[in-house]
Amino acid sequence: MDKIKVGIVGAGYIGGVHASVLARDERVRLTAVHDTIPERAQQLSRATGAEVTRTAEELLERVDAVYVTTPNTRHTELAASAARAGRHVFCEKPLATSLDGARAVLAAAGGARGVFQVGHNRRFAPVYARLRRMIREEGAAPHSAHVKMNRGELVSPEWVGDPEVTGGFLYETTIHMFDMLRFLFGEVARLDAVGSAHEYPETDDFSVLLRFESGVHASMCSSADASWLFPFERVEVFCHHRTIVTREMESLTDSSGLEGRHTTHSVHQLSKEEKWGYAQEDRAFIDSIITGAPALVTAEDGYKAVELVDACYGAVRSGEPWLGTRN
Ligand SMILES: NC(=O)c1ccc[n+]([C@@H]2O[C@H](COP(=O)([O-])OP(=O)(O)OC[C@H]3O[C@@H](n4cnc5c(N)ncnc54)[C@H](O)[C@@H]3O)[C@@H](O)[C@H]2O)c1
Question: Over the stretch 292-307, which tens digit does the pLDDT of each residue have?
Fold first, then answer.
């Protein structure tokens, strides 16, 4: 079998993570890399043997599949044009930083002949994959949940505080948890949110209330003006006389009955690439290309996550809840 020729557009942090996972996949040949800062592309080229291209268009001519790993507000055009050109596309989250942008990529991916996968890596993280199995397959039957996703600051790296680059704080890391809530509990029927701004020139602190079509309800808080006290990411799921709690992507604790007994499943021995699901999502993308199986995180999933972030900003602005798309 010919190796799948893969190109990377955006040779920064996460481009490097995917490159290092893909370099160990025998089914793949890293062929090309492009970055608007040529030195970054050259650095990744030296590490992987991939050729540097002057433009993204040139890169597309040389590959079967492309990773779009540019900053948030630079995904839409690149991902849509790669899909239209018939390439398999792995687009980092967020799919886009506006509903219009997300619709445009969704349309391009819908008409494309290649696989289109979005980088919501947490779905593949063993802690969250296990939590989903407990809920969807092993009868955990939650009635409610609480999610926390904090960032200590919007200072470092410099671009995290620039909405021109991020699209807004919620599009950065918090969007993972909107996707996670759908992954665990299904479609959202209603969302309300309150937000405030403090040190930074954007809304940086959110309290969100969600009701799902399944009847489950959840609260989420996400602040970018806090501290780096761990855990900054946590999901608590409440069931009949049972609580299941995650701590970062490190461990899951399950407490059943009323005696306070609990068991903790820890994945601390795994590499970060596996703990965070990067290795598994890249493997799944290549699997889909080879077998023709649908992507495990589709453009529609990416769109729905953008829709929830957009709904959250809308609810903060208007003071009115978002009533889902089926109401
Ligand atoms: N799934 C995750 O856990 C995860 C983790 C980190 C980052 N990300 C996402 O990956 C993306 C990149 O984040 P990062 O931390 O690697 O950022 P980064 O700044 O380290 O890298 C981005 C790179 O893209 C380059 N670039 C900018 N515009 C470009 C363009 N138009 N064409 C080609 N290259 C361009 C920059 O020069 C830079 O080298 C972001 O969307 C981010 O949200 C996801």
Answer: 999 999 999 999 999 9
For 116-168, write each residue's pLDDT tens digit: 999 999 999 999 999 999 999 999 999 999 999 999 999 999 999 999 999 99
- Prediction pTM value: 0.98
**What does the block give as tokens for 45?**
């080229």
**Whole-number Å distance between alpha carbons of 262 and 286:** 38
Taking only the tens place, the pLDDT of each residue in 92-124 is: 999 999 999 999 999 999 999 999 999 999 999
> How much of the chain is helix, strand and coil, in % rounded to 5?
40, 25, 35
The answer to whether the bond into 94 is cis (omega within 30° of 0) is: yes
Asked if 127 contacts 324 with a C-beta cutoff of 8 angstroms, the reply is no
Pocket test for ligand 1, best of 20, 37, 69, 90 (most atoms within 8 A of CB): 69
Cis peptide before 142 (omega within 30 of 0): no
What residues are in contact with ligand 1 under a 6 Å CB criterion?
A: 9-15, 34-37, 40, 56, 69-72, 74, 92-93, 119, 121
What is the atom index within ligand 1 of the atom nearest the CA of 74?
A: 31
